[in-house]
Design a protein that fits this description.
The complex is a heterodimer.
Chain A (H helix, E strand, L loop, with lengths): L9 E10 L2 E11 L4 E5 L6 H9 L6 E6 L2 E2 L5 H7 L1 E3 L12 H8 L4 H14 L15 H13 L5 E5 L7 H16 L3 E5 L3 H7 L2 E6 L2 E6 L1 H6 L1 H8 L2
Parallel strand pairs in A: 3-8, 3-9, 6-7, 7-8
Antiparallel strand pairs in A: 1-2, 1-4, 4-5, 9-10
Helix pairs in contact in A: 3-4, 3-5, 4-5
Chain B lengths: L7 H24 L6 H27 L7 H18 L3 H23 L4 H21 L1 H4 L5 E2 L6 H23 L2 H11 L1 H6 L4 H27 L1 E2 L1 H4 L2 H14 L6 H17 L5 H16 L3 H8 L10
Antiparallel strand pairs in B: 1-2
Helix pairs in contact in B: 2-7, 2-8, 2-10, 2-12, 2-13, 3-4, 3-5, 3-10, 4-10, 7-10, 12-13, 12-14, 12-15, 13-14
The chains are: A alpha/beta, B mainly alpha.
């Protein structure tokens, strides 16, 4: 990062989380600029999901800070952090199964009750799911569930959006729809942090990649630079 | 998958028909005193009381999934608050019932704050412990409560006013439930039941919502207890803190459909009638029926009668039902 770049919208400073004897995330510092799409990659068990949970406030870090617009938010709790403007999806989508797609959005929207329904329909339209609005989440296909969950994040218009494996188990048509929407939203100024194992899509989507291995940050740069980084190759393929 | 679903005009007609049937039931119950004996009125009053307990339990447990095994605690507290006010201070019934609401509501806030940090079975058992501890506490506080011998109030014939008060309480509970269920706040409560972690991550203020729902539920159960004490002019700890009160409320709500508007009403009508038919011949059977029924419902129809009818396409999937 150069000295002239604006302060990051989201940053972690030396964030560490231990589970028993395992250091899941080990002193990770990342700064993310507003209006960018950053990929968070690494082998299984490298700490990506834990870092997501730390940033979204589901778990507090043991040490280090999470900064949103320069303000420390670690330990605030998931609900408050969401209200401050960080939304996330889950690796295995966590919709409310006994609610319709529409209700999943209405339940979380902070728009006034009178316009909640209309706001939710607008967002469903944005992700192309108007036809399924009244279907129970439990009856949707896996890909549709992921898309509804994405819509549920968008309904409160967060500045920072974390997508946890958005492409896992999603068919190509829907992959494309997700990619298009991410590009639309990035152009509108939204900031993305995305983790996925689908390198082809990550490379296409992200202007920058950060790589975790055993909880440590081992590389940070453009997709091309990261792909050529010996440490990354070693982490993925072993020496 | 859903076999069939009712949509559009048919759904709206069915929904209004169903609601109209419930309103008619309410009108019928309110006209009953003109037609039937005091024996039947007393039975219906008991059914209304059970319905109030089921409906108030539904507000917290049916919607948020925080299954409380100690709901009788608030009924008991309300009964004693009203009972003591009547017996010791000779206050008029409305004041006694208001004090029942206040005591039970405050207890709901104070107990809910720590208890709602527990989840699943820990909350259920924790609340069971709370109810038991309160029962013992009331028994021990003999100078004020009359202890295990019970609390005697001046006897008065208040069957009709008590009947209409309990009916009004049931109508109020249904109205509150309907207002909640048809607004986003109802979906937020259901979201806690469906996936509390996801609810928090999507910005739902789960702690505050649970506490408000719990305190509201406790207040309404306390009012039921207050009306009960006023009507009976005698209460004792074993009766008003009875676990069977909670178990019946759970069975009724589950039978009708948790987190629905009229589910507790349907469940309490069905189970009260079954109870009335069976208890004369088999005095202990109706408690066993409640217990067995909970097991059967949890295993086979977790969404209750309302859910079954909705899945079969007989009723639309409206949150107003």
């Amino acid at each position: 990062m150069t000295a002239t770049s604006p302060p990051p919208i989201l940053a972690t400073e030396g964030v560490t989380k231990r589970f028993g004897g395992v250091v899941a995330v080990d002193g990770v510092s990342i700064g993310i600029q507003a209006g960018t799409v950053t990929g968070l990659i690494g082998p299984n068990g490298s700490g990506k999901s834990t870092l997501f949970r730390l940033v979204s406030g589901e778990i507090p870090p043991d040490s280090g800070r999470v900064l949103l617009r320069g303000e420390a938010v670690q330990g605030r709790g998931a609900s408050e952090i969401n209200r401050l403007g960080i939304g996330r999806t889950f690796q295995l989508s966590r919709l409310y199964p006994q609610m319709s797609a529409l209700e999943n959005l209405v339940a979380v929207t902070r728009a006034p009750a009178a316009v909640a329904q209309a706001r939710a329909m607008d967002v469903l339209e944005f992700v192309g799911l108007t036809a399924l609005a009244d279907e129970y989440a439990a009856n949707l296909s896996y890909g549709q569930q992921k898309l509804v969950e994405f819509a549920r994040v968008l309904v409160n218009d967060p500045d920072v959006i974390l997508l946890d494996e958005p492409f896992a188990g999603v068919n190509p048509a829907m992959e494309e729809r997700i990619i298009d929407r991410v590009h639309d939203l990035r152009r509108a100024g939204k900031t993305f942090l995305i983790t996925d194992h689908e390198m082809r899509l990550i490379m296409a989507l992200c202007s920058r990649l950060v790589v975790l291995d055993h909880g440590e940050l081992i590389a940070d740069g453009t997709p091309q630079a990261v792909r050529a980084d010996p440490k990354v190759i070693e982490a993925y393929f072993g020496s | 998958m859903v076999a069939a679903s009712v949509t559009g005009l048919a759904a709206r007609r069915l929904t209004s028909g169903y609601t109209a049937a419930m309103v008619l039931l309410g009108v019928g119950v309110s006209l009953l005193p003109l037609m039937v004996s005091n024996y039947i009125l007393t039975f219906v009053l008991q059914a209304l009381m059970a319905c109030a307990l089921a409906g108030s339990w539904n507000l917290i447990s049916g919607f948020t999934g925080y299954v409380s095994f100690g709901h009788a605690a608030f009924f008991g507290l309300g009964a004693y608050a009203a009972g003591i006010a009547i017996a010791k201070a000779a206050v008029p019934a409305p004041v006694a019932i208001a004090s029942a609401a206040i005591v039970a509501g405050c207890a709901g806030l104070c107990l809910g704050y720590p208890a709602l940090r527990l989840r699943g079975p820990y909350f259920a058992v924790g609340m069971l412990g709370v109810a038991e501890a309160l029962r013992v506490g009331i028994t021990v506080a003999e100078p004020v409560t009359g202890g295990g011998r019970g609390l005697v109030m001046p006897p008065q014939d208040v069957l009709l006013p008590a009947y209409f008060s309990m009916l009004a309480l049931v109508v109020l509970i249904v109205a509150i439930t309907r207002a909640v269920a048809t607004r986003p706040v109802g979906l937020r409560l259901l979201a806690i039941r469906e996936d509390e972690v996801a609810a928090e991550v999507t910005g739902i203020q789960t702690t505050r919502l649970k506490l408000v729902a719990f305190a509201t539920s406790a207040t309404l159960a306390g009012v039921a207890g207050g009306i009960y004490a006023w009507h009976m002019s005698y209460i004792d700890p074993t009766t008003v803190f009875a676990g069977s009160l909670t178990v019946r409320a759970i069975a009724m709500t589950m039978l009708g459909g948790q987190g629905t508007v009229f589910g507790p009403v349907i469940g309490s009508v069905v189970l009260s009638v079954i109870g009335e038919v069976t208890w004369a011949r088999f005095p202990f059977l109706h408690n066993a029926v409640s217990g067995a029924l909970i097991v059967v419902i949890v295993l086979f129809i977790p969404r209750g009668v309302t859910g079954v009818l909705q899945d079969r396409g007989v009723l639309p999937r409206s949150r107003t039902l």
